[in-house]
Each structure stands twice: as C-alpha cells, then as structure tokens.
Amino acid sequence: MAAAENLDLVTIIIQHKDEKKVLDAILQAGAPGATYYYGRGTGVRQRLGFIGRLIEAEKLVILTAVPTEKTQAVVKAASDAARLEQPGNGFLCVQKASQVIGYF
Q1: Residue 96 near residue 52, CB atoms below 8 Å
Q2: How many CA within 13 A on the CB side of residue 55?
Q3: Is the separation of the CB atoms in 66 and 31 below 8 Å?
Q4: CA distance 25 to 49
Q5: Is 35 exposed, middle or buried (CB count within 10 Å of its CB: 0-12, 13-18, 19+)?
Q6: How much is the pTM?
Q7: Furthest-apart CA atoms within the chain: distance in Å
Q8: Which domains does the chain have, with CATH numbers?
C-alpha cells in the first residue's frame, strides 16, 4: 500500500472520437498512464433538445492517477484536446487519491 498524499485521480469523459488526441495529450502533459473504457451517458443531450441529437451517445471514460504537481497540466491538456469548454464535448473531474495500491 502506498501513501497517496501527492496523487490525484483525474477522470475524463469524452466523445470516443477524441480518444487518440486526448490520450496523447495527457501522456505528453505528464500522466504516467491511463485506464479507459467505453460507456454511454445521458443528461446534456436531453437538455439540448434538437442539437442534443447531434451529440454522439458513446463516451470514453479515462482514469489516470497523476502526481499533484502535474495535475493542472494534465487537466489543461485534456480540456484543450477535447474542447471541454463547449457543451456536450465531455466532462472532467479531479479527486484526491486517499489510498493507492500498486501505483509504484
């Protein structure tokens, strides 16, 4: 078991079409690796009405444990690569990791 005082868990949910560019961007920004899987989402598409139908339902969920000093660089890289500031492009969340096993 490793202490996780200096690790953040970054969760990124994006359109699957942005997979390669976001993964490349976060790895370049300092993420040591990533685990990802495909999922389906609901919420934004329904609230956007007609325009929401143009947003793909398939999502890619990316999880990466990042040293705290690299978190903001990884967040910016993911946000820029997926254009997360635009509605419907995805979601990003940073959580403090309280316990980590097998990271190092």
Answers
A1: no
A2: 22
A3: yes
A4: 31
A5: exposed
A6: 0.81
A7: 49
A8: 7-96 (3.30.70.120)
Q: Could you give the CA distance from residue 36 to residue 26 in angstroms, rounded to a whole number? A: 13
Q: In a 10 Å sphere around its CB, with 0-12 CB exposed, 13-18 middle and 19+ buried, how is residue 78 labelled?
A: buried
- Band of the pLDDT at 1, cuts 50, 70, 90? very low
Residues with Cβ within 8 Å of residue 17, at least 6 apart in sequence? 56
**pLDDT tens sequence across 44-102:** 556 666 655 555 557 899 999 999 999 999 999 999 999 999 988 999 999 999 888 88
Cα–Cα distance measured from residue 19 to residue 101, given in angstroms and rounded to the nearest whole number: 27
| Matching residue, tokens 């690790």 | 7
User: What is the predicted pLDDT for the residue at 99?
Assistant: 85
| 28 C-beta neighbours (distance < 10 Å), count | 12
